[in-house]
Structures are given as structure tokens and as C-alpha cells.
Amino acid sequence: MKRRPLLALAALLCASPAHAADPLTLELPGGDGPGKGKHVVLISGDEEYRSEEALPMLAGILSTHHGFKCTVLFSVGADGTIDPNNQKSVSGAAAMDSADAIIMALRFRKWPDADMKHFVDAFHRGVPIVALRTSTHAFQIGEGAYKDYSQFGKKVLGEEWVSHWGGHKSEATRGVFEPGADKHPVLRGVKDVFGDTDVYEAYPPADATILFRGQVLKGMTPDSPPADYKKKRSTDKKEQGINDPMQAVAWVREYKNDAGTTNRILTTTMGSATDLQSEGLRRVVVNGVFWGLKMEVPAAANVTPTGEFKPTMYGFNGGKKGIKPADTALKPAK
């Protein structure tokens, strides 16, 4: 008789929403809030900009402050620890089958067809997508059923990899709102945006609404003055001032996919973990989820990280070693 309460307790713990169904993902259950009952899947997988740190932080905000169930997927190695260099890995891809929205921060992934199918099926359902930084070149699939998704950035998100427009690791980015765009719901409550990554060269399609452009700065701090020199565009090789005009760094569009459904898309070429120290940029991402789901965007969404967020500086092979997905949930500041 004494064993029954213990068995019941064990069953309760195993069924607790705090336990991820897949130990190679991070699952946050959500709860009360406007997002209750909605599932956001956040897909990390880039070698340079520490998406494995950024997306768990964003998941915490969406889950704790806004009620969304969140599942973060990772590139992992054979030992079950996070390995951003494993371009063929995405843990828990089946979570995308129940995604209501996707946040992606990917770079040149070569997922197997079985994993790609989960992504493509979600895309074809018309789920909204928030795409960060290198997601403009998310996939590099040379053959097979999904080889055309190597053009996902250009075709769907609105741009592919073009070039570093500002100086990499030497010239930061200040967001400058496009005239009239401050009325767009994605910019609701956004006062300023700064990132220590450089501006990418980008030319969104005519059907995109540009939200803000990236002013190239002379240094790496928010108070750095604008850069002032000439540079040739990659497209037509004509020279222009580095900030005249400024490159688009955030835009939205609605894309009718091959299945006949329409995806709401928010793309920003900002979005490293260090960029997301910017309250304004975090609010853009959170607002983008609400907008994508056709929900009322809060007047000033709570985007305070739910624990200590001290992101690693971006760079190849610079990620923390031996980290398991469950270890990425933010912990309270000491």
C-alpha cells in the first residue's frame, strides 16, 4: 500500500510539462497569457552567431511573459551536446508538426529529407515565420526532394546571402525606421534598435514592407557616429555612400507558398545573441510572433529576459562546449 503514492508521484513527475518529450530539445510549457494554447517552435543551427543561446532566451520570454508553449530545437552531436557545426542535425524535428509559428536562426543546414519534411509541411500549412540573421541562407541542400530549399531565403524570406556591407566585427548597426513604418504593428512599442553585428547587403522584393534600415556605425557601441565612406554594391558594382541609402535590415511580407496557403514573414538580418541584448530588437521578434499569428500586438510587450542573459560574442567555433539542450534555460541572476 505504501508503494502506491510513490508510484503515483513518479507518474505525475514524468507527465509534468516541465519535462521535455525529447531530451535533445528545450520545452517550456507556457500557460496564462494571450499565447496560451499556441505552440512556437524555435530552430537554432548556425556556426557563428550563437543561436543556441539566443533562442532559449526568446523562448523564455514568449513562454513566461506571454503564455506560448515553446520548443527549442538544436544542432547536436553524437554525445547529445549542442554542436552548431553539425549542419546535418536538428533535434526533435517532429515538434514542427504542431507549430503555430516558427522562429528560425539557421545557416547552411543540410538536414536529411525526413527532418526537412517536418519543416516543409509546417511551411505549407502557412505558419508564420520569424527569420533571424543568417536564415537568409538557412539551407544548403545539394540534391534530393528538397534541394530547391537552398533558395528559401531569396524566394520566401526576401533575400539570400549577398555580402557584409559594414565592417565585420568593427562596425555595428543602428536601426533607423523607414518613414511611415513606425505605425506597423511589429514596431509597436519599439523605441530603438542596436546590434553589434554589421549590416548585411540586402535588397528585399517589391512586395516587402521595409520596417527599418541599418545605419553603419564607425565603431561597436551605440554612441558610435555614422560611418562615411564609399562602397560598391554587389548587384551592379556601382559605388554609393555606405549609408546613402542605408540597407534594409528588417522587413515583412506575405508569401503564398506552393501549397496555396499564405505565410506571414518577418525577416531581419540582425539577430545574433549579442544583438538581442537590445530591448528594441527583442520586442521586434516578439511582436513579429503576434503579428504573424494575427493576434493583437501588445502596446509594449514584456521582453525582459527571464534569467541572466550574458551571450557569448559571435565567431566561428566560439560556442560553449559540453552543453546539453536542457542546460540552455536561463537561470536567475546571482
Model description:
- The protein has 334 residues and is α/β, with parallel strands linked by helices.
- Helix content is 19%, strand content 20%.
- The chain has 5 helices and 14 strands.
- The chain has helices spanning 3-15, 51-66, 113-125, 152-157, 279-292, and strands at 26-28, 39-45, 69-73, 101-106, 129-132, 163-164, 173-177, 194-195, 200-201, 209-216, 230-232, 239-241, 247-256, 262-268.
- The chain has a 10-stranded mixed sheet. A two-stranded antiparallel ribbon has the order 6-9.
- The longest helix has 16 residues, at 51-66.
- The termini are far apart.
- Residues 1-20 have low confidence and may be disordered.
Structural class computed from helices and strand pairing = alpha/beta
> Which fold name is given in CATH as the topology of the domain at 25-161 and 248-328?
Rossmann fold
Please give the CATH architecture of the domain at 25-161 and 248-328. 3-Layer(aba) Sandwich
Radius of gyration over C-alpha positions, nearest whole angstrom:
20 Å
CATH class of the domain at 25-161 and 248-328: Alpha Beta
Number of strands: 14
Widest beta sheet: strand line-up: 1-3-2-4-5-14-13-10-7-8
Which sheet architecture does the biggest sheet show?
A: 10 strands, mixed
Unreliable runs, pLDDT <50, ≥5 residues?
Answer: 1-20
Order of helices and strands: HEEHEEHEHEEEEEEEEEH
Helix percent reads 10-25%
Q: DSSP strand (E) fraction?
A: 15-25%
* N-to-C span: 43 Å
What's the overall average pLDDT, rounded?
93
Helix count?
5
Gross geometry = globular
